[in-house]
Design goal:
By secondary structure, the protein is an all-alpha fold. It contains twelve helices and no strands. It starts with a helix and ends in a 10-residue tail after the last helix.
Length: 317
């Protein structure tokens, strides 16, 4: 296990180095001049040159990259070129909103998807399976932004069940936090719940056809007990994989959801930074997202061996 962890940590480090190069070059390839965005269209060439010198944009690219890596490694994310505020403080103020929203959406998606997948397999060929399949197909077909607008129109404005916008920190008001995040989390987790439902159902159907399940049934175990004990356990590998890989997707997908529900999260910060050519903020946001992806994938790989003892790590069979 320790050898496996060392190998995976090495692979993760290489991935982060390559990702840092892509991030740095990708940001530099964005159209527009950050110095011109800061100084305005009427700025003189001397003023633009001074701003580029202050930001280090007049230095060779490899020098800028080396300084970028050194600052990130030391935990210094720099300052916003637009506001002058610390990037770390800006992220610290907005990241918790997006993380809470994404985690809430994953919980909603996993609980709903596994329950519907289990229901569809237990009542295969009957009306509960048809309802579950129809719900999954509808969730995959409807865009989140349109579903969000419908939810605001009917559930918030029409029935008054949820607030249409705003955010309350968990430490200030736990009840208000739940009330404000529930509807955005439901909207954000809808598509993922549909994917988990279909994968859970397919995985359980395959597991129920195996020899050990037939042996268990031959010993007199009921179908529901076999389904929960063997079918569901095998399907959890698929659920963990999907949930882990989709965490980054939910964070990026939260950009749209945060705009619809006016949540002051990571998404709004990212969009503002892109439109304003705020290089330090864009780089910090993408770096943090990449690190999150790598850590989640590492955790998923480790969880495999915990969920299914048949899986051997370290390349051993």
């Amino acid at each position: 296990m320790s050898r496996y962890l060392l190998v995976r940590l090495g692979q993760s480090a290489i991935t982060l180095v390559l990702a840092s190069m892509v991030i740095f070059l990708g940001v530099r390839m964005l159209p527009g001049d950050p110095a011109l965005a800061m100084a305005g269209e009427e700025a003189t060439p001397e003023r633009l040159a001074m701003i580029r010198a202050d930001l280090g944009l007049d230095q060779p690219v490899w020098v800028q990259y080396g300084r970028f890596v050194a600052e990130v490694a030391s935990g210094d994310l720099g300052e916003s070129t637009r506001t002058g505020a610390s990037v770390a403080s800006m992220i610290g103020a907005t990241l918790p909103v997006t993380l809470w929203l994404s985690l809430y959406a994953i919980v909603v998606a996993v609980v709903t998807g596994v329950a519907l997948g289990l229901l569809a397999e237990r009542y295969r060929g009957r009306w509960p399976e048809w309802v579950a399949n129809a719900a999954a197909l509808t969730s995959l077909s409807v865009p989140n932004f349109w579903l969000g607008m419908l939810a605001i129109l009917y559930l918030c404005i029409g029935l008054g069940l949820f607030p249409a916008s705003g955010y309350v920190p968990l430490t200030d008001d736990p009840v208000g936090w739940v009330v404000h995040l529930t509807l955005p989390a439901l909207i954000l987790g809808t598509g993922l719940a549909a994917v988990i439902m279909r994968q859970t159902r397919a995985s359980m159907i395959e597991a129920m056809r195996t020899d050990y399940v037939r042996t268990a049934r031959a010993k007199g175990l009921g179908r529901t007990r076999v389904l929960l004990r063997y079918g569901l356990r095998n399907s959890l590998i698929v659920v963990v994989t999907i949930a882990g890989l989709q965490l980054g997707g939910l964070i990026s997908g939260a950009v749209v959801t945060e705009q619809i529900f006016a949540l002051p999260g990571f998404g709004k910060l990212t969009l503002d930074a892109v439109f304003q050519r705020d290089y330090p903020v864009i780089q910090a946001v993408v770096v943090l997202t990449t690190v999150g992806y790598v850590l989640v994938n590492l955790a998923v790989d480790v969880l495999y061996s915990v969920i299914d003892p048949r899986i051997r790590v370290g390349g051993r069979s």
